TrEMBL record:
Regulatory protein of the TOL plasmid xyl operons. XylS activates the xylXYZLTEGFJQKIH operon required for the degradation of toluene, m-xylene and p-xylene. InterPro entries: AraC_XylS_family_regulators, Homeodomain-like_sf, HTH_AraC, HTH_AraC-typ_CS. This is Helix-turn-helix transcriptional regulator. PROSITE patterns: HTH_ARAC_FAMILY_1, HTH_ARAC_FAMILY_2. It is found in: Cytoplasm. PANTHER family: HTH-TYPE TRANSCRIPTIONAL ACTIVATOR RHAS-RELATED (PTHR46796), TRANSCRIPTIONAL REGULATORY PROTEIN (PTHR46796:SF14).
Length: 146
């Protein structure tokens, strides 16, 4: 009896795999993400995304979060920040131009959201990126502009 209890105690516990239910079906998730990316520089309303997916706003929001792990607004914000980082690194656009291109209402809002996300303001982040790139290119001078 003691041996059978010991065997049971050593057996790995296998939990049944839960089916991921409640998320968007793939075509709806792709559609919503593509609409967001296509309109990143504009105001993106969750109600418009829900309507495009033929769902109520609340059902769409719950399903989107279930599928992506983020609310629609958080996913939009994440995409805007990713686009801003790409523009900061690859263009000489001002931070004001970048903020508007990425759908932020103004540079102050962009700087606030960027700093909250990255722990550093976008100007300092740009300077850090330029310095890291110039370390790869001998003789280059970093030029940091807002």
């Amino acid at each position: 009896m003691a041996q059978s209890q010991q065997t049971i105690a050593c057996a790995p516990i296998v939990e049944p795999r839960k089916k991921n239910t409640g998320g968007l079906i793939p075509w709806r998730e792709s559609l919503a993400k593509q609409l967001i990316l296509d309109r990143l520089s504009e105001t993106v309303e969750v109600a418009d995304l829900a309507r495009a997916c033929a769902l109520s706003r609340s059902h769409f929001s719950r399903a989107f979060k279930c599928s992506t792990g983020l609310s629609p607004q958080d996913w939009i914000r994440q995409q805007r920040l990713a686009r801003a980082k790409q523009l900061i690194q690859s263009t000489d656009m001002t931070l004001t131009q970048i903020s508007l291109e990425c759908g932020f209402c103004d540079q102050a809002h962009f700087c606030h959201i960027f700093t909250r996300s990255e722990g550093i303001n976008p100007f300092a982040w740009r300077c850090r990126m330029v310095r890291s790139l110039t370390n790869l290119k001998p003789g280059s001078m970093p030029v940091c502009q807002g």
